[in-house]
Design a protein that fits this description.
CATH topology of one domain: GMP Synthetase, Chain A, domain 3
Radius of gyration: 24 Å
Largest sheet: 8 strands, mixed
Shape: globular
Number of strands: 31
CATH superfamily of one domain: ANL, C-terminal domain
CATH class of one domain: Alpha Beta
Strand content: 15-25%
Bound molecules: ligand 6R9
Length: 635
């Protein structure tokens, strides 16, 4: 039996029991056998969830790129590490071998060094899904710099906030990006953001679209000529196990985004282990995760997890609908994809289209299907299973978070019997618990509660960058001594988990986490707006869509309401990003509030969902009369 690759359910239970009884031995054995260390650890784990503080493999020395690249060169040097599939299918795909990846990453690492970037410095990466995005992430890791990737769909304001918060010295971006039929000028967005970020002294620009852009003298340089000149040798910086690897921002229910900080060794061990088991990756497979590297899924399961296993991983620049809704399936056929990992929102969007888009392609290479980002509804699960997997490929419904670094609850294909809409069982090392509102653990099966974790795992985020108090408040204060996920869950009669959704003010739209607070802030900045509340309502493609209730300053506002809607939408697109634009904006006279002044979102959610038959207890409302008025004009 190998602890690293679990082969059947009986083995899973054995391995799981060991991981709970002897967590330190369990992880130490995996770490020892499957990775390259420059120095072994002194201590496997020390932790205290009240501080909170977690340290794995203390004082071990390593470099993650040595594990993801160098150690494969002898046996897999000419194997493809990354297949890059461009936006436009008429452009040729690139097959980047491990040898080539090694050279590119070293060259870029040398460029970073020549610009004065050192261990511990923060580098912001704002790039579309081009190979340079993977090179940039790995080049930072090569020299011990901390990468902060910002999804290249975010607005200049959102980019500026994140760049400032992480105090980045450098920005890596491109002239533009292709998304389906659209071309986006990224450099303009960067220029605007950097007006607020004087400490970014150097900007490296990847040439992708070739459009006209401004290059600021002394600050901006094209990346490609610098890489051409740079040496292809760059010795990896040897870092400590607990040295930071990256910061990645995630929306909070209040205020500014949280920069989740992940460290090196534990993250590496956990993402590699989960990748191997959850995708049942075997040599020769071609694995494709459709996420963007701007999200945690891309960090852990396009870059680090697959490369640590010497896998072939696909990076797709485009969108599922271009040139038509068959694109995903065309790519599966073209590259003979064996594992296909995507999001429920994409599945629902594709399921609405003519089935010929699927049937025109040979999908027989597929062995494993995966889902991530939000609960997958029963209908989408069956469509995926019947039409894409042809009932032959198990679906792994993987539950996890930016904060957890790696997949926490998921079936393992050909090991765990799947059940539609259930993420099923915890991965080895993960000890979930369901909590009631009084902070007591709910034992037994056929129960539901708030999902927490009671023991640390190697890839848990270590802090919120620059705000450890916020880390403690958000994750460790709801239930004493436990990590609280923010999600609700139920446990069925055999112990399978089903995630039921967020219990806080985060709304997941098309798989993207959006905090309501920043969107409301953006709306409220419009001069005509007095107050607003944003809630989610079910949407058959996006999972949830946004509904904004807006109070205007002057109720007799003379401007046309459609214009106001447009302006508010623009404001949201500028401040948060286009993805946060509400589907519906209703102008109201008042918002239902409790006596302590809190907006009763529960009621607004019901109205937005057109489910007003039972509004529950409204007796604690300060202004019950507004509810009828809102319902009467609901959109
Ligand atoms: C990986 C990722 C985290 C939140 C999480 C939960 C939701 C993710 C899910 C799921 C049900 C799944 N979520 N996977 N809900 N089933 N398989 O998505 O990270 O962007 O931080 O979002 O997404 O609500 O708390 P992140």
């Amino acid at each position: 039996m190998s602890n690293y690759h679990i082969k059947n359910l009986e083995e899973y239970f054995q391995v799981y029991r060991k991981s709970v009884r002897e967590p330190e031995n369990f992880w130490a054995e995996i770490a020892e056998e499957h990775f390259t260390w420059r120095k072994k650890w002194d201590n496997v784990l020390s932790w205290d969830f009240t501080k909170p503080e977690v340290k794995w493999f203390e004082n071990a020395k390593l470099n993650i790129t040595e594990n993801c690249i160098d150690r494969h060169l002898l046996t897999r040097g000419e194997k493809t590490a990354i297949i890059w599939e461009p936006n436009d299918s008429s452009e040729e795909a690139q097959h980047i071998t491990y040898n080539e990846l090694h050279k590119k990453v070293n060259k870029l690492a040398n460029v970073l060094k020549s610009k004065g970037i050192q261990k511990g410095d923060r580098v912001c990466i704002y790039l579309p899904m081009v190979p340079e995005l993977a090179y940039s992430v790995l080049a930072c890791a090569r020299i011990g710099a901390i990468h902060s990737v910002v999804f290249a769909g975010f607005s200049s304001k959102a980019l500026a906030t994140r760049t400032l918060d992480a105090d980045c010295k450098m920005m890596i971006t491109s002239d533009g990006s292709y998304r389906g039929a659209k071309t986006l000028n990224l450099k303009n967005i960067v220029d605007e953001a950097l007006e607020d970020c004087p400490d970014v002294s150097s900007v490296l620009v990847v040439k992708r679209t070739g459009e006209e852009i401004n290059m600021k003298d002394g600050r901006d340089e094209w990346l490609s000529p610098l890489m051409d000149k740079a040496s292809e040798q760059c010795a990896p910086e040897i870092v400590d196990a607990e040295d930071p690897l990256f910061i990645l921002y995630t929306s909070g229910s209040t205020g500014k985004p949280k920069g989740m900080l992940h460290t090196t060794a534990g993250y590496m061990v956990y993402t590699a282990f989960t990748f191997k088991n959850i995708f049942n990756y075997t040599e020769g497979d071609v694995y494709w995760c459709t996420a963007d590297i701007g999200w945690i899924t891309g960090h852990s399961y396009i870059v680090y997890g697959p490369l640590a296993n010497g896998a072939t991983t696909v990076m797709f620049e485009g969108v599922p609908s271009y040139p038509d809704y068959g694109r995903f399936w065309e790519i599966v056929e073209k590259h003979k994809i064996t594992q296909f990992y995507t999001a429920p929102t994409a599945i629902r969007a594709l399921a609405k289209r003519n089935i010929e888009f699927v049937e025109n392609h040979d999908l027989s290479s597929l062995k494993v299907l995966g889902s991530v980002g939000e609960p997958i509804n029963e209908e989408a699960w069956h469509w995926f299973n019947d039409n894409i997997g042809k009932n032959q490929s198990p679906i792994v419904d993987t539950w996890w978070q930016t904060e957890t670094g790696g997949i926490m609850i998921s079936p393992m294909p050909y090991v765990t019997p799947t059940k539609p809409t259930y993420a099923t069982l915890p991965m080895p090392g993960i000890q979930p618990s369901l909590m009631d509102d009084d902070g007591k653990e709910i034992k037994g099966n056929q129960v539901s509660g708030r999902l927490s974790v009671k023991f640390p795992w190697p890839s848990i985020a270590r802090t919120v960058w620059g705000d450890h108090e916020r880390y403690k408040d958000t994750y460790f204060s709801t239930f004493e001594g436990k990590y609280f996920t923010g999600d609700g869950a139920m446990r069925d009669e055999v112990g399978y988990y089903r995630i039921t959704g967020r219990t806080d003010d985060v709304i997941i739209v098309s798989g993207h986490n959006l905090g309501t607070a920043p969107i409301e802030d953006a709306i409220n900045e419009h001069p005509a707006v007095a107050e607003s509340a944003v809630v989610g309502f079910p949407h058959d493609v996006k999972g949830n869509a946004l509904y904004a209730f807006v109070i205007l300053k002057e109720s007799g506002e003379s401007r046309k309401r459609d214009n106001l809607r447009k302006e508010i939408n623009q404001q949201i697109a500028d401040k948060v990003g286009p993805i946060a634009k509400p589907d519906k904006i209703q102008f109201v006279e008042g918002l239902p509030k409790t006596r302590s002044g809190k907006i009763m979102r529960r009621i607004l959610r019901k109205i937005a969902s057109d489910d007003t038959s039972d509004l529950g207890d409204t007796s604690t409302l300060l202004n019950p009369e507004v509810v009828e008025a809102i319902i009467a004009e609901a959109l």
